Amino acid sequence: MERLPKHYSVLGTIADLKKYKLALSNAEHKKVATNESTIYLTKLLSLPASITSVFSDTEWDFNLENPNASANIIGSKLKINFNKYKNIPPEVIIELKCLLLSVQLTPEVFISNRKKVKKKGTTKLATNTILGHFKSGLRFLDTLFRILKVKLGQEHIEKIYSSLTQIQVIDYRETAKVFTNTYNDDLKQFFSYIQNPYTSEHIFGENISAFDPDQFSWKKRYKKQDSNQVMPNWAFDKLIRTASLLVHDFLKTIGEEVSDSFVSRYKLQNETMYCSNAGVTKDTFQLYRAFRLLSANYSEIYVESKYGIPDELRNSKNKYNLKDMTAFINKGKYKKITLTSIYEQLALVSFAAKYLIGQYTGMRPSELAVIDLNNCLIEENGMKLLRSHVFKGKNTFSKGLFDDKWVVIPIIEDAIKAIKILSSITQRNLMFSSVHTKKSNEKEKPQTSVMIRHQLKIFIKFASPDDDLGFSNYMMRHTLAYQLYRLEAGLPLISFQLKHLVNTVDKFLSRGSTSDVTMGYGGIADSLVESQTAQKLRKQSEIEVIKATADPDGNYLGGKADEHKERLKIAFRGYMASGYSKEEIFEAMAEQGLGVINVGLGYCYGSDSNNESLPCIGSLRCNPNRCSNAIVSEANAPYWREIYSTNLANLNNPSFADNREQIKEVINEAKGVLTLLGHGVPNE
Known about the structure:
This protein is mainly α and 684 residues long. 51% of the residues lie in helices and 4% in strands. It has helices at residues 5-15, 17-24, 35-45, 90-105, 107-111, 127-152, 154-160, 169-178, 185-194, 197-204, 233-253, 263-267, 274-278, 282-295, 300-306, 322-331, 339-361, 365-368, 410-426, 449-463, 473-488, 496-510, 520-528, 531-550, 561-577, 582-591, 637-650, 660-676, and strands at 59-61, 79-81, 377-380, 383-387, 405-407, 556-557, 603-604, 630-633. It has a three-stranded antiparallel beta sheet with strand order 3-4-5, covered by helices on one side. A three-stranded antiparallel beta sheet has the order 6-8-7, covered by helices on one side. A hairpin with a 2-residue loop joins strand 3 and strand 4 (383-387).
């Protein structure tokens, strides 16, 4: 925060605490409070802690000075109630309040001494982050003083203890053994605050006991779980395809045009009638919408003027009676459907559309939560962009893109269109919102990350019911970055939409609207994730390349497959004899840059051949069915699958009638390779 003259006044008053500490103590053997100390105490207790709170308040509230906080933070995370920690002496609470204000007003002093610094050059600490540290520390100290009261007696504690400087190392160590909360980064940061030289000089007036909390025997110590940062490739492919089909099925059912025509290409392999099976048609959608709105007490005039009310819903008295409407839908000509099945299907379409938007933008949950349907789509230089609001530190790599604006590729455009249509039922302005209809006088609030995750997990459970992906909202962001790193490393495309994403970003950047540098696959990925995560994901993608092309235990097909495999085994045997594991060898190869190679349609050992038919024409005929020098592995399968699917979709397209025979030949070529790799393909 920007320091103002009043802030220096606050810091000056806090710095005087050490002069009056003894006089402010209630202990009988301390000095009797002088007039001067009384004046100081009055001044200290009246210091402003926030817009709505003063120093003497038992609860400090920082919500008003953080009006743009995300839905995950507003409320209790921006408040701290000191009255909850009843075992801590009042004098120590005063010290901690002074410390809290000091951290807020001089964060750069305390950042330099923190145990964990995410970014170099960081000079700010978010209010909710600081409060999280202090709440954790207050819980610990409350336990510490409770133990001391049991051991030494409450009266002794009240008379003797008036500062944290009186706490001994053994007190911290013994408390750690019984502290029921987890020793985590928040508590570690709190300890770094009380051990900071600034604290000793300006608040305590002397040093506290030196200790290293990491060396204590904590009852509960936080262990970072090896969570799945990214989805497996098969899961990414499965989820985006299912989500795309759900969105397109809905749009086509109600007669809307779709922007991403590619989805229809793989629909041939996934013939689905999601809406039809659930009883959703253009007519039932209109009936259901009217029912939902009238049920939520929207006036007949409003519903009729905005969307129309089917006359079929009127009862014999020409009224819209909800009971009669329900009976009509359940028993009339639509008796095969239920309100529940329509609700569940439309909710599923909404969740699938939200997944696509989250997956292909890589937005954080706080950014997804505030996308406003009324103004989220904008256009710059002929390019469609999706607008939201970034709460976290702005990305210095770009000047606009991934920084309040994201490119809109065709499948995202379709997803947005689906959500806008569904919002006519829910009457909600926020894209990521409840699927229940908002009351006319209800104030809409952004969803928390927990609510967003809950909706997306319902879709994931539908798309992949037997798999536990350990899904979290940030997994979409990390998975997008990982897939882009895979592309840069030359691994096969899993998602056609990634081509759209990269091409659209490149067009946007080339106009000079965002950056003077070309981002490319890896550049876009770098802009999505922290540098440390980026390094990890990039390396992970390169190791995947190596495993696909240079694993001595891998599966390779073709005339030279055995020779290729034997060469790898000989090389690995030497390394492993030196004590390296196979995984360590893969990592070393990645660090040496061996992962950045192309694994397109296959590999060729033509240089070792005496085949008189060479030179080879390559491309589609570079496969083991055509040439003994060609080698293919599982890594090449996605390319051949894409060739097969694309041409199968074009087979009966009138636009390609003149090339029908060539298309058939390409399909058979791809089918042969996929069959060789053990991939079943349907007949065209």
